[in-house]
Specification:
The protein is mostly helical. It has one domain. Helices cover about 80% and strands about 0% of the residues. The chain is built from 8 helices and no strands. Helix 2 crosses helix 4 and helix 3 packs across helix 6. The longest helix is centred in the N-terminal third of the chain and has 76 residues. The protein starts with a helix and ends with a helix. InterPro entries: DUF6090 (IPR045749). Keywords: Membrane, Transmembrane, Transmembrane helix.
């Protein structure tokens, strides 16, 4: 092909047809430029397809993480509700409500003190953030929603740490010197179990103002965490819907 064009140029020069040669040369340059532009366009298209494929893989991984996270969120929300209910019952004992069964006291204080925490399944998105490639997600709504979920978890972790500090100060430390934890765990694991429980220990615990304050704080903080978790769950469900729509495009 190159020899063919070269012969044409040589023929035009030999025939002393400079104007035609000039036009031909310009045309040849135009063809070369067009060829380069087409090549660049193809290259850009290939790169776009490659990035799109990579984005889809990332979105599918994030989607799976979010679905797993949704299951965990539903579970911990129910557990927070249970802890709020138990903390309110425990606080009522310290406000004069009569304890009908010793096992009730043991069950509810163990239910509150048993530490449970939910950690998000956001491995794929964290890797994306750490690599600095968040911009590969082109859908701004998805990107912003994922960042919002991350920020919400950071806020939740702060509250959770504060609650753990309260637990340690007002509940774990005082109770460790008064009541047998093993008995509480047995009753919590099986509320219908028949074991001998110490009424004397309960009476001592009922006189402890730190413990009373601990259950008041436990009710407040578990309720706060529950509300934060519900909001995160809503954002997770919304993001799942957005990603599923994006993948189907």
């Amino acid at each position: 092909m190159i020899k063919f064009f070269r012969k044409i140029r040589q023929g035009l020069l030999t025939e002393n047809k400079f104007s035609k040669y000039l036009l031909y040369a310009i045309g040849e340059i135009v063809l070369v430029v067009i060829g380069i532009l087409i090549a660049l366009q193809i290259n850009n298209w290939n790169e776009t397809q490659k990035n799109k494929q990579q984005e889809l893989i990332i979105l599918e991984n994030i989607l799976q993480d979010l679905k797993n996270d949704k299951v965990g969120l539903n579970d911990i929300i129910e557990r927070r509700k249970s802890k709020v209910a138990s903390a309110e019952i425990m606080a009522s004992y310290y406000n004069g409500v009569k304890i009908k069964k010793l096992s009730d006291y043991y069950f509810h204080w163990t239910n509150v003190l048993y530490w449970e925490a939910h950690n998000p399944r956001n491995i794929a998105f964290k890797e994306l953030v750490n690599s600095g490639n968040v911009s590969i997600i082109k859908n701004a709504d998805i990107r912003n929603s994922l960042l919002e979920i991350n920020a919400s978890y950071d806020e939740l972790f702060d509250v959770r740490q504060h609650m753990y500090d309260d637990y340690t100060l007002y509940l774990y430390s005082p109770y460790s010197e008064i009541i047998n934890y093993e008995d509480g765990i047995k009753v919590w694991s099986n509320p219908n179990i028949e074991i001998e429980l110490s009424k004397e220990d309960v009476l001592v615990a009922l006189k402890n103002k730190a413990i009373k304050n601990g259950f008041t704080l436990a009710s407040f903080n578990n309720n706060l965490l529950k509300d934060q978790l519900i909001q995160i769950l809503k954002n997770v469900e919304l993001t799942i819907t957005l990603i599923e729509k994006e993948i189907k495009k």
